[in-house]
Design brief:
Blueprint: H1 2-19, E1 30-32, H2 39-56, E2 60-65, H3 77-88, E3 99-104, E4 109-114, H4 123-139, H5 143-159, H6 170-214, E5 227-229, H7 240-248, E6 251-257, E7 264-270, E8 287-295, E9 303-311, E10 317-324, E11 347-352
Parallel strand pairs: 1-2, 2-3
Antiparallel strand pairs: 3-4, 4-11, 5-6, 6-7, 8-9, 9-10
Bound molecules: zinc ion (2 copies).
Length: about 350
């Protein structure tokens, strides 16, 4: 009886393994069956993976699924990932250097499966990428960022180079690596430290600006301490363009007056963010620009826009037209053939969130 039962179990387990159906891929780079990426994000990820294939010959594919149950499978992700990898044939058939990142969103499990050419050498590094880079983002529900950062880190682990740096000189790559390390350290300190320090830093800066603007000044003629005039009293010492700038908040002026000789000293503080630009005629930051699109650009032809300029100080007006560049085609419908026929013997790492 016991033998019969175990035979039934064996048969059952074989049927569950055989019953799974793997999805068909529509391209070799990004197959977002779970729909966690928008078109721009898919294009960005595809660009990174395409560049890797062009520069290093490595096929790296990213797959998202809703749930493994949709594929008539229940069980750990590892055999499913290996089976999917081999049924698609990811990577070069001779080198077996393919990589597949599989994220099953509703089941909250993921795996990075690597081709048999890596042996077990990538198991540790892939585990660190999953635990340190991908899962923290996934736990926040930020699947796009988890995938972007994870893919970059995986590429670094397998090629020793980050995306975009393949042709960069050695010293530049080392410098970038250092910068990334520093970024990682800041991220490691946590948003907490940053959230705490940023307002303190901003407050100190504002305080220092305030103090330095109002620090006592001596008259250059007679050495008498000058008086700072408030916003209401300073207009008499400002010219029209300066008053206009203050009104439009594109600049702020401080006026200091000597009580002994009536010498006045005007200090300009330009605004950091202002929609008014510098007028080429009167030189004050009182120029307003209104843009009208005359013809929108398409993927095959350029467009045209008209900029209307009006200076609110000297009242100068003029218009100019400019050409808008051709829209770049989204390459989302491009599928570039099939995989190279590589295989995996189960190397890689997994995680859940
Ligand atoms: Zn004076
Ligand atoms: Zn002007």
């Amino acid at each position: 009886m016991r033998i019969f039962l175990s035979m039934v179990l064996v048969v059952l387990s074989i049927t569950t393994v055989q019953a799974q159906n793997y999805p068909m891929y529509s391209e070799i780079y990004v197959n977002d069956f779970a729909g966690v990426l928008n078109a721009d994000q898919r294009d960005r990820l595809r660009g990174t993976l395409k560049e890797l294939k062009a520069k290093r010959g490595v096929e790296f594919t990213v797959v998202t699924l809703n749930t493994l149950q949709d594929h008539d499978y229940s069980g750990p992700i590892e055999p499913f990932a290996t089976g999917l990898f081999n049924s698609w044939g990811v990577g070069d058939a001779g080198k077996n250097d393919g990589v597949m990142l599989l994220a099953v969103i509703e089941d909250r499990v993921m795996r990075i499966e690597v081709g048999s050419g890596y042996g077990t050498s990538m198991n540790g590094p892939m585990q660190r990428v999953i635990d340190g880079t991908i899962l923290p983002q996934f736990r926040d529900g930020d699947y796009p960022e988890g995938l972007f950062a994870g893919v970059e880190e995986v590429i670094y682990q397998i090629t020793g180079t980050y995306p975009g740096d393949y042709d960069a000189p050695q010293y530049e790559q080392i410098a970038k690596r250092g910068w990334r390390w520093a970024e990682g350290l800041i991220a490691g300190l946590g948003g907490f430290a940053w959230a705490l320090l940023a307002p303190v830093g901003f407050g100190l800066w504002r305080g220092w600006k305030f103090i330095s603007r109002r620090r006592p000044r001596k008259c250059p003629n007679d050495g008498t301490w000058m008086i700072w005039l408030g916003e209401k009293d300073d207009d008499a010492h400002l010219i029209k363009g300066q008053i206009r700038e203050e009104g439009l908040k594109s600049a702020d002026y401080d006026v200091w007056l000597c009580p002994a000789c009536d010498h006045s000293h005007v200090i300009r503080h330009g605004a950091w963010f202002s929609s008014y630009s510098k007028c080429p005629r009167c030189t004050f930051h009182t120029l307003k620009t209104e843009t009208t699109v005359l013809t929108s650009p398409t993927t095959s032809s350029t467009g045209q826009a008209k900029d209307d300029y009006h200076c609110l100080n000297c009242n100068e007006r003029w218009s100019a037209t400019r050409t808008l560049p051709v829209r770049t085609k989204s390459s989302s419908s491009s599928s570039s053939g099939g995989f190279g026929g590589g295989s995996s013997s189960g190397g890689g790492a997994s995680g859940s969130w």
